[in-house]
Amino acid sequence: MTHAAVTPAPRPETAALIAEGRAHLGLELGSTRIKAALIDDGGAVLATGSHAWENQHVEDSWTYSLESVHAGIGDCYADLVRDVRERHGVELTQLASVGISAMMHGYLPFDAEGTLLTPFRTWRNTYTSEAAAELSRALGRNIPLRWSIAHLLHAIRGGEEHVRDLAELTTLAGYVHRRLTGRSVLGVGDASGVFPIAASGEGYDAELLERFGALEGVAELPWSLADVLPEVLSAGQDAGSLTAEGAALLDPTGALQPGAVAAPPEGDAGTGMVATHAIAPRTGNVSAGTSAFAMVVLEKPLSGPREEIDMVTTPAGDPVAMIHTNNCAGDLDAWLGLFGRFAELLGRPADAEELYGILFGAGAEGEADAGGVLSYNYISGEHQTRVPSGRPLLVREQNARFTLENFMRAQLYGAFGALAVGMEALLKDEGVQLDVMFAHGGIFRTAGVAQQVLADAIATPVAVGESAGEGGAWGMALLAAFTAARQGAAGSAPASLSSFLAEQIFASQELSTLEPQEAGMAGHAQWLDAYRAALPVERRAGELLA
């Protein structure tokens, strides 16, 4: 899939740049796709690669096997190599820098020999609610269900034997980075979802580490949490380099040479912020895919811990309020697959771009309140609305205007429904000021439709840039390029990540910004009231439909 970032026509020197190892690689392991982006120093995309994969539900846990991780990154890199060969007529054998990003947090515990102690437990698992609640009380911070520390305490409270053998606890990005470089480190943005970060943005909060260690059942364990967590690094810091073993994992053909500078590994929230240049106070970004999250950079602290709001950081360590939802476009994609099959049966098959364009366009023509049609996109449980076990539902009043236009409007509203609930807590209850929300993800590829829906839902201007469709891997490639610049010759390094992005990457990027519309805001507010009122139906469905 071609990346749509700031990409001018290929220059004559591009082939030489790639052949000489001056390009930067970003690789992101998302929920449904592993993506790679190869860029030059200015952020222009030279080639892309991708690999489709899916999580599995094994023994009541959503997981990906490490074998699928290894095979997936290898296949994604091979796809990138093919793209380089086809576009530029050269072989990719050297890299200036490399960066790894992945879906946030979850639980990957290893023993001293590097053996995984239990299958990877992803962000999608919601059985950590009791552990997260206990930690929130003990630490005085909101600890979300998906955070690594919540998974760890859940395992301790469940009497799981493997916890005594714990020697390293990391994220998926941290694991892949260690395999490529031999270094057990995390970028501060990803680390902030493993355990709370100190107010300075430098390392884990020492006082809270002590509080965790004093919890019942924890003090008796043969390790301290500080010793098993990865080192925390900010954007641009030295995170090692690509080893011979790491190069062979990425490229089993042996063509790729070791030595590339490695960026601190990050979560997909951090790369989304970088890809949209949303790292300054009063800016934010929404990343929409299988799940959705909004990141808002804060000017000042919130009033106190809130269950709806996660406190994390930018890749540079600045405080960020995060609204995370487990569900976004998955159910919408399923419905569009159904319409695609109907088109095939009619003898007029449509490709994805055409299908999405037609149906999203219909949604744009729907009534502002979706005509009384409600859509719950809960493939999994949704903590923002206190739904423990999700069941996708389409619900309507007896007198609802059930048209295709209103159906699609409800689908688009539903994709952002839980996010809108969380954003009300941040923007209305906490009074956080937000000048603009940058958006990226595949749902925004159809120009103007989901963008306007989101603007109306959060009553904030929403901007979509040229990187909207494929932001994550590109954002990680930018962090890799920044790291290479910071670790390069003295005197030429950019002063900060913010200045690097502003001066070198985004100075010429065009943005499309849509303002919220009065009719749209009023209609969405009416729809959201009905959505909240009918949540007991969604909860009951989870109880009855096993």
TrEMBL record:
Superkingdom of origin organism: Bacteria
GO biological process, one term: D-xylose metabolic process
Record keyword Kinase present: yes
Keywords: Carbohydrate metabolism, Kinase, Transferase, Xylose metabolism
One Pfam match: FGGY_N
Metal-binding listed as a keyword: no
A molecular-function term among this protein's GO annotations: kinase activity
Annotated Carbohydrate kinase FGGY C-terminal domain residues: 285-483
Residue ranges of every copy of the Carbohydrate kinase FGGY N-terminal domain listed in the record: 25-249
PANTHER family tied to this protein: SUGAR KINASE, XYLULOSE KINASE
Family: Belongs to the FGGY kinase family.
Protein name: Pentulose/hexulose kinase
Naturally occurring in which organism (per UniProt): Brachybacterium faecium (strain ATCC 43885 / DSM 4810 / JCM 11609 / LMG 19847 / NBRC 14762 / NCIMB 9860 / 6-10)
